[in-house]
Design a protein that fits this description.
CATH superfamily of the largest domain: ATPase, nucleotide binding domain
Largest sheet: 7 strands, mixed
Pfam families: FGGY_C_2 (PF21546), FGGY_N (PF00370)
Shape: globular
CATH architecture of the largest domain: 2-Layer Sandwich
Mean pLDDT: 93
CATH topology of the largest domain: Nucleotidyltransferase, domain 5
Number of strands: 24
Strand content: 15-25%
Keywords: Kinase, Transferase
Number of helices: 16
Radius of gyration: 22 Å
Structural class: alpha+beta
Distance between the termini: 53 Å
Family: Belongs to the FGGY kinase family.
Number of domains: 2
GO molecular function: kinase activity
CATH class of the largest domain: Alpha Beta
InterPro entries: ATPase_NBD, FGGY_C_2, FGGY_Carb_Kinase, FGGY_N
Amino acid sequence: MSEAALTLVLDVGKTRTKLLVIDDEGRLLQSWGYDSQSIETTSGYLALDTGSVQTWLSDTLAGVGSLRKSVRRIVPITHGAALAGIGPSGLAVPVADYEFEGFNDRPADWAERVDPFASTLCPILPLGLNAATQLDWMQRHLPGRMSKVSHWMPYAQYWAWWLSGVASSEVSALGCHTLLWKPREGGWSALARREGWDRRFAPMRHAWDTLGFVRPELASSLGLPSGVRILCGAHDSNACLARYLRSWPRMTLVSSGTWVVVMASSASLSALDGKGDFLANVSVRGEAVPTGRFMGGRDIERLCAGADPRLADRHVLRQLIADGVSIERGGQRVRMADGQSISAEGLVDRFDARERATLAAMYAAHETMNCVQALGAVGPLTVDGPLASNEVYLELLAAMQGDVHASNDLVEGTARGGYVLAHWTDARLTPPLVRPVAVPDDAHLLRGRVAPIL
């Protein structure tokens, strides 16, 4: 097993933060995980706990041991809807958590101030899911703190800056439902220009660009070689997409995690009409990608009510169908054969762990297909992340879609995407490892009886 040139992927997710060590042949050597946290700030809003990530990262790297001497690259990948504002002494404002409810406090004319959907291909979303909403809130509530920001940058680039000292911005993160970017034109929105936010963002770089080397004092404290290259990094779902686009430009990706994100790389943008949670993401190559999504990881956890999602079972699926049990649209309730509707919170009293896990898989499959159909997605459907190993979920997709593949990689797509970005110009990169999902013999039964109630 080669340790000659190792890549570290720092994957900062909304729910879980991970550090992975991958060798030059693409093999996973070691990985560590940490529950992502948020904190209340003295400025009156909820923020991502960047300090605890730094402490955890330092402690974890100490556990890498002798492998540290072989590290050559570090790639940061993070969730979206997070911006970092830095000043001369580091963070000028804590990185906001997009789930802060205060972000729903908006000017009465907010809908008129933002660009029309046809320009940004992004709807106005709740909380702080639009990064522009966060900037506007801070501008109104924290003008003094805002004035101390010399550079804004997306969250992945914050970690690249923390490691290298070089500030940058990147298109997949700026194009991730921010209301700051116009995906078709590849430029700043009118809102961003009018408010002057565009002029305060760090320079644009490619996700695969090397920004510089690890800061000398950080290399010393972390025990890393001084020549470790720090890459710009990317938005997590788009990093996952990048690993596939290199080999298969026409495909539809289902990236699963806290969010289930359906990215239809070759679908038409005309399917996007500003309704629902459908929008255009922007790939690391700058292409507009029609996208639909739902908070699948959180929803599955709620429906499972303590059960392991991996307990989902094909035989239980068919028994639930035979008993006339179905999922109501949105996954908030389960409908019984007699018409009784049960809330997600009440499932634990009526269904055992395998049944709850199977109901959660049913829900996830049909919400996924709602996205696929609404986007007019074409090409094979490829599932990555935790749902790639959920056989009930995959079987239902195959019954409804036909051409379905699941990642067969030991490294989840986001982290593998980080590795691919670190080797973007390497002609030796192999295609993604996937396996076909067989269409079940009773596909007609699954299609006809499992669809959510409208």
